Amino acid sequence: MASFLILDQLTEVADSSHLQDKMKVWFSPVRTEDETFNGLMLDLWFGLRLTLRKNRRLIAELEALGERGGCCEYGYVADMEEKE
After folding, report:
1. How far apart are CA 57 and CA 82, in angstroms?
2. Nearest-angstrom CA–CA distance, 8 and 18
3. CA-CA-CA-CA torsion sign (42, 44, 45, 50)
4. Domain ranges within the chain, ordered by starting residue
5. Out of the domains of life, which is the source (predicted)?
6. Which of helix, strand or coil describes residue 10?
7. Given 30, 39, 44, 84, which is the most exposed site by the fewest CB atoms within 10 A?
8. DSSP code per residue over 37-76
9. Burial code of 39-68, b = ≥16 C-beta within 10 A, e = fewer?
10. Cα angle: 60, vertex 56, 69; to 5 degrees
C-alpha cells in the first residue's frame, strides 16, 4: 500500500495523470531483464544439481566396485585359504 501512496504523491507533485503510464514504461523493461536473469540462474542451478547427482552416483558405484575389487588383488585366494 505504501507504493500506491508514493505514486499518488508523485502524481500530485508532477500535476500529471500520465505519470503512472510513464513509470510503467520505465519499470517494465527492468522487470523483463530480472525475469530473464532469474530464468538463467534457475537453468544453471538445475544443471548443477544434475551434475552433482551424477557425480554422487558415480562415486557410489566406484566405492561399490572398490569393495568388490579387493578379491581381485594378488594373493587374495591364498590368504583366504590360509585363514581356513
Report:
1. 36
2. 12
3. positive
4. 2-83
5. Eukaryota
6. helix
7. 84
8. HHHHHHHHHHHHHHHHHHHHHHHHHHHHHHHHHGGGSTTH
9. eeeeeeeeeeeeeeeeeeeeeeeeeeeeee
10. 20
Axis-axis angle for helices 2-14, 19-69 (nearest 10): 150
Closest residue by Cα to residue 56 from 67, 44, 64: 64
pLDDT tens by residue, 21-64: 666 655 656 667 778 888 899 999 999 999 999 999 999 988 88
Residues recorded for the chain = 84
Asked if the model's pLDDT at residue 1 lies above 60, the reply is no
Model pTM score? 0.44
C-alpha cell at 23: 513509470
CA distance 6 to 30: 19
